[in-house]
């Protein structure tokens, strides 16, 4: 084996370098113990029961039907792409990447699975697992957001560096990370595909969490398109205020905030008029009888 193959690849060169295949691939049947040299460069058939899950795995849910389909494919065609593991001790390995293939292999009844053995510390394990999953698996938007955040905080990467690693620009990375600021209910809905990434990106432009939640409820109840949500957000961000007192003075911000909340709550462009004596009125417009009944129903829920 050449010195290049012996050399340990450090952080900073990306997944391709960290998982670089050795020129010397050694295939064995039922391997149970490897020398230090073999751990770095070989591919082996490992007992599936000797492998444990990756604690840094970003994917939290595996679709059961999809796993069964993969298992059936493995029964017929075998494992096309080996998994990657690190050795913890004799007959003890830990996944770096390939958990779906490992789980499906067990479902398919395989006793061994082909695997590349690599050396890696915990930080390398984390980076390899996160980047491999982001690039190769269909993670949902929240899993991607969490993976990006972990790469930044736990692997000490800047957004620019992260973008280079995963092949995304900084804006895209930032859009995902911003999702983590949404209320948990909305994050769960995005994870479960009740709303799309487009819906969530529009909602995140609202600062008030109560308004965000109300907007989310209307999206789900009325099946709003992304474009409709974007239009509503623009209206909420640019409310029409009337009255001299609303235009200047200490009451301005209070009126703007109140109008913003009411517009979101009623789903209508509420206007507030205030005079110099701080007297005024609140107007809630409606477009037809059905819209009026909707507003009255909202008011009725307050009692």
UniProtKB/TrEMBL annotation:
The UniProt similarity line reads:
Belongs to the ParB family.
- Mind telling me which Pfam families this protein's record contains? HTH_ParB, ParB_C, ParB_N
* Name of the featured protein: Chromosome partitioning protein, ParB family
Q: Output one GO BP term.
A: chromosome segregation
Xref: CDD domains: SPO0J_N
Q: Which domain of life is it from?
A: Bacteria
- Which PANTHER family does the record match to this protein? CHROMOSOME-PARTITIONING PROTEIN PARB-RELATED
The protein's organism comes out as Siphonobacter aquaeclarae
A GO-annotated cellular component: chromosome
Q: Is-annotated flag, keyword DNA-binding?
A: yes
**InterPro entries annotated for this entry?**
Chromosome_partition/occlusion, HTH_ParB/Spo0J, ParB/RepB/Spo0J, ParB/Sulfiredoxin_sf, ParB_dimer_C, ParB_N
């Amino acid at each position: 084996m050449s010195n290049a193959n012996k050399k340990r690849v450090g952080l900073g060169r990306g997944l391709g370098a960290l998982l670089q295949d050795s020129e010397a691939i050694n295939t064995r049947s039922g391997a149970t113990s490897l020398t230090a040299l073999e751990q770095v460069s070989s591919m082996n058939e490992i007992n599936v029961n000797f492998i444990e899950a990756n604690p840094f795995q970003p994917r939290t849910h595996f679709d059961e039907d999809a796993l069964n389909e993969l298992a059936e494919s493995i029964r017929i065609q075998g494992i096309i792409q080996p998994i990657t593991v690190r050795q913890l001790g004799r007959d003890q390995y830990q996944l770096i990447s390939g958990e779906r293939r490992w789980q499906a292999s067990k479902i398919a009844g395989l006793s061994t699975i082909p695997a590349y053995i690599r050396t890696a510390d915990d930080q390398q394990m984390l980076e390899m697992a996160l980047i491999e999953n982001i690039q190769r698996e269909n993670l949902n938007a929240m899993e991607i957001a969490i993976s990006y955040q972990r790469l930044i905080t736990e692997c000490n990467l800047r957004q620019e560096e992260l973008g280079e690693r995963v092949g995304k620009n900084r804006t895209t990375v930032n859009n995902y990370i911003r999702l983590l600021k949404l209320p948990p209910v909305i994050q769960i809905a995005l994870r479960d595909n009740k709303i799309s990434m487009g819906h969530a990106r529009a909602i995140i432009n609202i600062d008030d969490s109560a308004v965000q939640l109300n907007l989310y409820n209307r999206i789900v109840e009325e099946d709003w398109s992304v474009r409709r949500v974007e239009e509503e957000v623009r209206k909420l961000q640019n409310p029409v205020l009337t009255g001299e007192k609303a235009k200047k003075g200490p009451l301005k911000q209070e009126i703007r905030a109140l109008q913003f909340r009411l517009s979101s709550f009623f789903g209508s462009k509420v206007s507030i008029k205030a005079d110099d004596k701080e007297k005024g009125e609140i107007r809630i417009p409606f477009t037809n009888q059905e819209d009026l009944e909707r507003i009255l129903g909202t008011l009725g829920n307050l009692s």
